[in-house]
Amino acid sequence: MIDKKTLENITTVIRPSLRFVDLTVIVVSLVIGMGIFRTPAEVAQKAGSYEVFILAWVTGAIVSMIGAFIFAEVGSAYPRAGGFYQIFSHCYHPAFAFMVNWITVMSNAASTALVAVMGSEYLAPLLFPAWDHDMTVGLISALSVLILYFVNMAGIKVSAKILTVLMVVKISLLLIMMISIFMLPEQLESSSVARTGDMGWMQAFGLCFIPVFFTYGGYQQTMNFGGDVKVAQRTMPRAIIVGMLLVMVIYLMVNYAYVHALGLSGLASSKTIAADINVLLFGEKILPWISVIMFISVLAYVNVSVMSNPRIYYAMAQDGVMPATFMKVNSRTQVQQSALTLFVIFILITLYFSRSIGDLLKFVMFFDSIAFMAAAYSIFIFRRKATIGQNDVFRMRGYPWLPMVFISVYAIISGVIFYHDPTTALTGFVLFLGGFPLYKLFVSINGNKKE
Fold first, then answer.
1. CA 317 – CA 333 distance, rounded (Å)
2. In percent, how much of the chain has pLDDT > 70?
3. Which among 120, 245, 409, 433 could bridge 141 via Cys, Cβ 3.0 to 4.6 Å?
């Protein structure tokens, strides 16, 4: 850990300022990125039938709600700034915590950059139709990230308010697509598509897990705000559970609306689902508005990612495995300025080398499944370490069976990815192991004796 003298020379105290509503919006924002506007097409391609498609999304909803209860208890038991790192450090070892989180933050930067690119692709033809498309997309992506950087520099409360506005816009777009259930003729007769290769329904169902759980993921990052929340032991569980219930209802209704409006075959072939449905509803004249709304939707995800990830650097610095400057918090704005700046730099670097993002994201899901399993297993460790002083900690029902189900599902996801793309899985594992010498280097530089 950082020595006391160093702690006295830097500002390390984060004052809780987020309310239940703020944290609930953060939960929803962490989950609902661009995935719900893109991955259903991939799920439809892999599913091959309406029944498998719906079963995959329902299974994702159930397992993700189990995960919400698990992380509600874990977050309540150990509310800390940068909690996703702190939990690994507390339950396992700082070296393992660093290895998990260094690649997680890097992959989150890549994911954030990719989402920014997706949104900019909608806006670029509208604003600069005569310019080079790739250059324009890169420019808009970088500018949007920089704008949100300065928004976050203004303070976490300002950022949370901006996030609420952006989420209202995004949820409104999703509600419009839900309305298509009642305004468009049913296309459920187009209820099957040809599956890739010679796959049975079980194998197709397993392959659906990858895009489905990628789309449902993100709520685990809520634990990074443990130090920012008032009465965290009560507020964090409520926000995680309510937020994930909202996500579950929205996702199931939107996916039903997709299939209702486009049919499974139409959905499987769509690359711009939101635009396709809204054109059916309102005609070609709606396309410019959809482009703007999609871009705003992307900003909501980018903003919450920029809010969340710097808190991991803060936690690492507290543990003495990153320079102490990453603990410094602006006393007025409650912003970790050095950590925020570093994360935005990672995003901008990734944008510059954006051609490699697709390859990076392939192993992110494999690695995330490992991180999910380790994080979920921590509930067993916290239960064993429980003391009398923890009586006010949230307790999930269904323990230990539901956590075992959750871990088993993510083990299946890891196995599916390894079986179908062993190179990607091995690449992710090598990068994970590469975090150990980096951990040793930072510990040596900081003079940290904790091993």
1. 20
2. 86
3. 120
